[in-house]
Amino acid sequence: MALFSAFALGLILFGVLAGPLIWRVPINEIDFAAKLQGPSWAHPLGTDDLGQDLLSRLIYGGRISIAVGFAAMVVAIFFGVLVGAVAGMSSGRVDAALMWVTDLFLSLPQLPLLLLVIYLFREPVKGVMGVEGGAFVLIVAVIGGTRWMSAARLVRAQFLSLREKEFVEAARALGASRLRQVMQHILPNALGPVIVVATIDVAAAIIAESTLSFLGLGFPSDVPTWGSVLRDAKDYLDIAPHWALFPGSLIFITVLAINFIGDGLRDALDPRRVL
Amino acid sequence: MQVDRVSRQYVIRKLLIMIPSLLGISIVLFALLALAPGDPFDELATNPAVPPEVRAALRAKFGLDDPIWMRYWHWLIALLQGDWGFSFVSRMDVSTLILQRLPVTLVVIGASQILAILIAIPVGVLAATRPYSLFDQIANTFAFIGFSLPTFFTGLVLILIFSIQLDWLPFVYRADIAATGWAFYWEHIKQSIMPVTVLGLFQGAALVRFVRSSVLDVIRLDYVTTARSKGIGERKVITRHVVRTALIPVVTLVALQMPIVFSGAIVTEQIFRVPGIGSLLITSMLSNDTPVVMGVTFVSACLVVIFNLIADILYGWLDPRIAFR
User: Fold this and answer.
1) Which of A187, A233, A255, B285 suits a disulfide with A203, CB 3.0-4.6 Å?
2) How many Å apart are CA B325 and CA B312, to the nearest integer?
3) Residue B97 and residue B94: Cα distance in Å, rounded?
4) Per the confidence metrics, is the pTM higher than 0.90?
5) How far is A65 from A205, CA to CA, in rounded Å?
6) Looking at the domain assignment, is residue B81 inside a domain?
């Protein structure tokens, strides 16, 4: 199942990366004569209410959605590993304080918080970095900033058990500095479960981005992402169902494939949890 | 009773632990608000009819020049006194507005959690008693599909099938149904089916896997073997001995998943136009109604903390191994 998913995900990745080279219809070519059409040879996935070609919009949107997913995962894992490593290495007060903050963030309702940050900071960031770049940076930052907690707890737990192991003690006895102990000995051994969490985080971040765009608080409508195409489509469900079904299925297939890959990785990396 | 007194202490201690988390949440919210650029008196600055001295006097009156901790203190006191500000758009108090919308959200979330539990427990237990059987694999695959399907897509597909193709269910949730008696309830149930199903299936899918692994952890314990060797029927062993223990962590998970349920509720309310606090949040964001936005965010954060508290208390009550320390 994981291999099949990897294949499906590879296909989607190849499609969105190489797609623009093969399918050269611009994303914003308006053609009212061809609006709201179902799939045809001229428009393999049909058109939207302005007669724009859905295939090229979805290829473009896929690039953004998947890029947001990976970038947000990198942010989340970076913070998670940092907080987890610091908490795991330092016991006592620092550890307790960091874990309190982690628990606090875990008990915050994620989507309202995401929406609130974007609502408050959307305009100024847009002013600094432009519409598309600003939205990208802001969305990646907030999704990453609200998803680091599970990685942090995981890394801390790993560190707490690994740092007492003999090989770390041996490194310590040989006079390895704290930083060297962490970077050379503990972190590489703690990475297995982190990779699994990172995989699943990509899927969650893609869903989060699509949700934000779907609610109208992510990327603006003129920047097509899978979520924003879906949002535009939802008012035309009765006359143009294809418009909503294609982006929705793409999100679903991508997320499902990534989740299956994560599950496969979990089985592969941690044989104890097979049952 | 000794136990009663001890457990009351446990509850009180949990309540006291709740206070710092609520304070932490309020600090996070206030920090966001204070860090966000934009001055409420910006509009006056560009208005030539308002002289700068008046603006300065207004700023001083509303305490905008005070140090930040003092502003936080005033904000917190106002929040505690129930003075949550005034909605610019709806022309009413934020607290009244939220109280109007809250019950609908709670009913939808509650019903969908019940649906999720009703699906997850039987399916998860059955899958765990026959690990790696055909049923287990099918259940596992469906669980994966269930929580990989984003709620906004499931909602749209359900609307497409049941409202547009089959025309069975209404896709706009209405609060002003004109019928009375049974017809009134029937209409309400009919329009709640789709939002509740969307949320319930999503939650149920995540729970199934958890119930399964929890039951698998318990089913191999010695006391289950003992029960079997006493000659108790398999069915009774599962229902009376295994499930009761296995469900303890599930209770905690149900409560800990409340933040996710809230996220789902915001989306479903938006799709089906359910007049709950989720759709209130989105509409006030799109119309720049900051007091309502802050109020709704704080209320949802409080609800999550309260559900965590309920989980803790239930956990202590269900599992006697957790001493009421």
Assistant:
1) A255
2) 12
3) 5
4) no
5) 9
6) no
- Rounded-to-integer distance, Cα A27 and Cα A61, Å: 10
Residue A275: pLDDT band with limits 50, 70, 90: very low
Tokens of A129: 């970095």
CB atoms within 10 A of CB B275: 17
Question: Can you tell me the distance from the alpha carbon of B136 to that of B123, in angstroms, rounded to the nearest whole number?
Answer: 9
**Pair B208, B124: CB distance under 8 Å:** yes
Please indicate, yes or no, if residue B129 is contained in any of the structural domains. Answer: yes
Please answer whether residues B267 and B156 qualify as being in contact, where contact means their C-beta atoms are separated by less than 8 angstroms: no
Per-residue model confidence as pLDDT tens digits over A128-175: 666 677 778 888 888 888 888 888 888 888 888 888 888 888 888 888
- In tens, the pLDDT along B206-223 reads 888 888 888 888 888 888
Q: How confident is the model at residue A88 (pLDDT cuts 50, 70, 90)?
A: confident
How many whole angstroms separate alpha carbon A64 and alpha carbon B159? Answer: 27
* Residue B90 belongs to a domain: no
Report the b/e string of A195-223 with b at 16+ CB within 10 A.
ebbbbbbbbbbbbbbbbbbbbbbbbbeeb
Q: How far apart are the first and last CA of chain B?
A: 17
Nearest CA to B88 among B56, B49, B43?
Answer: B43
Closest chain B residue by Cα to residue A207: B150
A219: which DSSP letter?
Answer: S
Please give the Cα distance from B266 to B286 (Å, whole number). 14
Whole-angstrom Cα distance, residue A65 to residue A206? 6
Give the residue carrying structure tokens 């008990």.
A107
Query: Rounded to 5 degrees, what angle do the CA atoms B272, B274, B279 make?
Result: 100
- Residue scoring higher pLDDT (A118 or B323): A118
| Rounded (10°) CA dihedral B87, B89, B92, B93 | -10
What's the CA gap between A222 and A132, in Å, rounded? 10
Query: Cα separation of A226 and A214, whole Å?
Result: 9
- Identify whether the C-beta of residue A114 lies closer than 8 Å to the C-beta of residue B281: no
Please state the rounded mean pLDDT for residues A230-251: 79
Q: Find which of B29, B140, B256, B263 to mutate to test the A interface (most A CBs within 10 Å of its CB).
A: B263
Cβ neighbours around B60 below 10 Å, total: 11
Look at residues A230, A274, A236 and name the one whose alpha carbon lies nearest to residue A248.
A230
CATH code for the domain in which residue B243 is found: 1.10.3720.10
Q: How many domains does chain B have?
A: 1
Which chain A residue is nearest to residue B26, measuring alpha carbons?
Answer: A108
Q: Do B149 and A241 touch (CB under 8 A)?
A: no
Residues of B in contact with A100 (CB under 8 A): 20, 24
Asked if the structure places residue B251 within a domain, the reply is yes
Whether residues A109 and B301 touch (CB distance < 8 A) is answered with yes
